[in-house]
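Thread: Newbie trying to understand structure tokens

Hi all, I'm a second-year student working on a class project, and my supervisor (Dr. K.) asked me to get a predicted structure for one chain before our next meeting. I've only ever worked with sequences, so writing a 3D structure as a token string is new to me. If someone could post the tokens and maybe explain what I'm looking at, I'd be very grateful. Here's the chain:
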Amino acid sequence: MNIFEAIKRRIQKKYPIDAEGADEEVGVNMVEFDGVEYMELMKLPLDGNTYVFLSNPEDASDFFVKKLIVEDGEQYLTGIDSREEFDNALLHFTKQALGT
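---
Reply by user tm_fold:
Sure, no problem. This is what the structure looks like when written as tokens:
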């Protein structure tokens, strides 16, 4: 099982509804990038930062891992600083999704 399948199964267990109405029915955050809506699937506190795993509900292989920052009380998603930081966050998302 890959990370996408594991995360999808985890979300479906927690929220057994289709992605179409997820944002209205259970308060799942949707974020738009370049005209495409992405669903916030997981948040992960790690090494003093919070990372967010976002996936296109129409194509699970289309995903982002972003860093959540707070400035003046407002939350923003920003890019990750390095490949090493991305790999570390993705590893921990995978572990969390697989329950390991």
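A couple of things are worth pointing out once you decode it. The first helix runs from residue 3 to 14. The longest strand covers residues 59-71. Feel free to ask follow-ups in this thread.
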